Structures
1.
Amino acid sequence: MLKRGVALEWDVVIVGAGPSGCFTAQQIASSGFKVLIIEEHEQIGEPVQCAGLISPRTVKLAEISQDLIINNLTSLRVFSPLGTKCLLNSSNVLAQAIDRGAFDRELAERAIKSGAELLLGTKAKEVERIAGGYRLTATDKSKREFKITTKLLIGADGANSMVARWLNLTHDNPKAVMFAADVELQPFNTGCIDIFLGQDLAPGWFGWIIPLSPHICRVGSGYAFINSDRSPRHFFQMLVDKYPHYFKGLKIIRQTGGVVPIGFMPKIYAPHAMLVGDAACQVKPISGGGIYLGLRGALICSQVAIKALQEGNLTEKGLATYQENWEKEMGEEIAWGVAHRKCYLEWLYRNLQRGTK
Ligand SMILES: Cc1cc2nc3c(=O)[nH]c(=O)nc-3n(C[C@H](O)[C@H](O)[C@H](O)COP(=O)(O)OP(=O)(O)OC[C@H]3O[C@@H](n4cnc5c(N)ncnc54)[C@H](O)[C@@H]3O)c2cc1C
């Protein structure tokens, strides 16, 4: 762990030690640059604000240990707002439920092994543009203030990114607002994910049951694309009430929630600065899954950052290839997701006008 005051001149300072921040740090530190990650929480991966469902391509990309995988899911059942069910069975693993806290810690450990330093319990409070980079004001848990200077500032600080606001890289994209919980519940099939659609139980979004074991599931619901004066917890209760048969014996062990941004961000870089992960809207528009796209974003961000650091060109022009490469690699997938979500919402509203849920 870093001793304060030892070195304040960094090549790169990354705000946020989530998966996107740590994966970015690992790549850049491996190239020999001095990287500091600052994280406001005392422990990496806590509190968990995620259902921890990832695709096999994420496991491959992150090269995570197999023991982080809690359950392999091979089928998906979708409950439509009209009361019909659709079942998709596969002989392959469609998705994997992971220990999300341990996943974040594994990525953080790898970043440290690659040479990055990590300051826990440290919150970025303010940023000031200085010649050749930024001066960041941070506070530790005793509210002691200190300054850090860096050539390149990377905001990996999640959906409510302060770094994005400081850099004027804001957006008014819709957000999905969710309630989620680990619960005691007996799933009907431990290999099957259940998805519930309907404006009454998840307006513009979906409810879910993800089994972890014969007795434990992850469940949740929420809303998106609307301003709701109801909490996402309310919609979860609506889901439970609508499908009592599936939620029989429900007992909440741990609850959480949070938001994810949906869509493209017009700009994810600035002079001497970049955004990555949820802070850069690198999230799947259909599912709200941000782990895979955040890791892909981290790879592209770090490749551009390494080149710019090597060439000593951290100007806006020098970093513009980040946006270009991001859109080239992932633009089609995100645009496809946005178009399908729009299509679903239009279908829903048409049915609502006809009086169907
Ligand atoms: C309820 C819910 C369920 C989800 N389920 C899934 C799922 O099943 N699969 C999936 O792929 N995705 C899921 N997501 C989305 C996923 O959790 C995010 O996309 C992912 O965590 C993004 O990673 P990140 O590193 O960009 O940001 P985060 O994981 O949010 O990390 C940001 C970090 O920055 C730190 N930070 C913030 N501000 C500061 C500051 N000022 N100073 C210092 N540190 C700061 C935070 O403490 C945090 O550790 C879910 C999200 C929610 C809310």
Note: The longest helix spans residues 316-353.
2.
Amino acid sequence: MKTITLGKSSLPSSRLAYGCWRIAETEDAGRTTGRAAILAAIEAGYTLFDHADIYGKSRAEAAFGAVLRETPALRQQMLIATKCGIRFAGEPTPDAPFRYDFSAEHIIRACEGSLRRLAVETIDLYQLHRPDWLMDPHEVVAAFEQLRRQGKVREFGVSNFQPSQVALLQKACPFPLVVNQVEVSLAHLDCFQDGTLDQCQAEQITPLAWSPLAGGKLAEGARRLLPWQENYRVDAIVTELDAQAQSFGVARGTLALAWLLKHPAGIVPIVGSTQPEKIRAATQADQLHLSREQWYRLLEAARGERLP
Ligand SMILES: NC(=O)c1ccc[n+]([C@@H]2O[C@H](COP(=O)([O-])OP(=O)(O)OC[C@H]3O[C@@H](n4cnc5c(N)ncnc54)[C@H](OP(=O)(O)O)[C@@H]3O)[C@@H](O)[C@H]2O)c1
């Protein structure tokens, strides 16, 4: 697979990342299908692996850690990204609500938990999962600096941040934030118009695209969607994808990933399938070259109307 440097860092990533959200819905799945998916992704050339402390209630990081314990040499050929900041209801006290928490104490404790589960000494990319309404940028940066000084994290990024929130945190942070991980796909175009991708290009921040296939709706179908994704209307997009995919000789999902790769911001789609054959098929996306006309035909199908 081709590579791309993440933001202003020196971290070289595969052009597509592999997302571990769905690899361990149960402990058993983590040991079986999850393990097979991780090994298939490594074999297929993915080098950036995306996690969060909460994926599968921490089972995803644990399943990944088990693979690394089994074959420690794999660590050398990959970048490990994970996230913190979302806290479930009932933790640590029964009356605690679902919330976001960027307190220094929580960031540091969450990072140490991830390091333990992933069985690594350093996280390559540590991301804040969803903007905390109570974010104090100086407190966040103090936590980042401590984690960096201790060698626990190499680079930092954010996820689901608005451009103004990225600017606010970056203003307080002495080193560059290297990614903003956001939902972007043919079924969800907000980032093209709300300044997110413009900021990424202007500031050399790599956009990581989550749900690049709208949870499966743009490909062979969804297993589990986030609530708002249920409402995505994709019929016209799928029709246009099918027409073009046939001429490229690829699956429609692969073409939907190639559509993201063409954008000059250097979008890195995070592939979320747990099926080895789909994980492999997705890698063909970085060999496809859509013309401007093909790209805009898909955009028109996604918008449901001609551009003004
Ligand atoms: N930062 C955030 O807030 C956030 C939120 C959500 C996700 N993420 C990250 O983004 C990653 C990807 O998200 P996602 O899983 O929603 O991505 P996605 O690629 O949009 O959806 C993957 C789902 O689509 C199905 N699918 C059907 N056909 C497919 C095909 N041809 N190729 C690939 N998948 C196909 C998969 O099922 P099968 O397994 O059966 O193939 C899987 O359930 C996650 O793993 C996570 O790392 C981040």
Note: The CA atoms of residues 188 and 296 lie 15 Å apart.
3.
Amino acid sequence: MKKEISRKFCVAPMMGYTTPYARKLYRILSKHTFLFSEMIATKSLIYSKNRSNIIDNDSNNPVALQVGGSEINDLKKASIIALEHNYDEINLNVGCPSKAVQKGSFGACLMNDKTLVRNCIEALQHDKIEATLKCRLGLGKELNYEFFEEFIDEISKSGIKVIYVHARNAILTGISPQANRTVPPLNYNYVNRIKKKYPQINFILNGGIDSLDKASFLINQFDGVMIGRLIKNNPFILNKIDKEIFGASFEKTDGEEIINNYFNYIRPILGKDSIFRLLSPIIGIFFGVPESKFIKKKINEILHNKELDLMQKILIDFIKEKKYLFN
Ligand SMILES: Cc1cc2nc3c(=O)[nH]c(=O)nc-3n(C[C@H](O)[C@H](O)[C@H](O)COP(=O)(O)O)c2cc1C
């Protein structure tokens, strides 16, 4: 049996950011937000000795493991691994436009082969774990609703229940993955239209949701929202989600307590992974301020010298000074 889970508010999968450590921080900040791992290629998931540094779950549920791949047997194995690691969901990445990913025959280029994507989803399906998809609207410079509709028509035959849509096309040549998150225009209307055709599927809207106000507004029009860069740049926004989005009674956690909780978590695992990966979920907050160039240099020095206590103190002072939690 699968658990009933709310996907009203999700943090998007982000390579290099939604690490097991970031997910711990996000969980300290919000009990109800739905979380994602970074994308992991099925081959790495199955064969890498290092996979635990990416997929350790540590009971941070509700959470999805995102995979990239298109080989049916590998996907079947991936689903079992996700289950063994207590994930609630296994998600197929059909949105990443990078060259490396195209070379491995996964990511956004799979939108060109809707039957294969349907077969992939069917390979991931298991009665104890939800198999879901994250895709774009289409491929190339021109938006085309019929292409998107035909793609979803095929995928829907798998019986899929949840589809996350990064509501813009992917352009596979000539622009970088970063530019692929800003250059192709957003079109939320396509997601609205497809929802009308498939009311039984939960469509979660992703792309360009850059404030909590926007998220709250869109949650009323879609089955849920998925947010990436806003959280990457300021994870502390998650401190408001349980109350504002899920209606939970407000437990005011102050910034110092959050930082201390997080450092208590990473101190014993120092050495398990690089100090940068352990601290990157939290140090992003320094970089959106005018003096960020100077701060970046200082932070790099501290990380290099592994001065954890100093880092903790600087973070607490910074949060107090900028009133970060409540901006
Ligand atoms: C640094 C970074 C890494 C990303 N890595 C992944 C990934 O591993 N898998 C994926 O499906 N999308 C990935 N994305 C795309 C996000 O999941 C999301 O679709 C995109 O950023 C749009 O949402 P936003 O406008 O809220 O940021 C990444 C985005 C960023 C900024």
Note: The chain has 15 helices and eight strands.
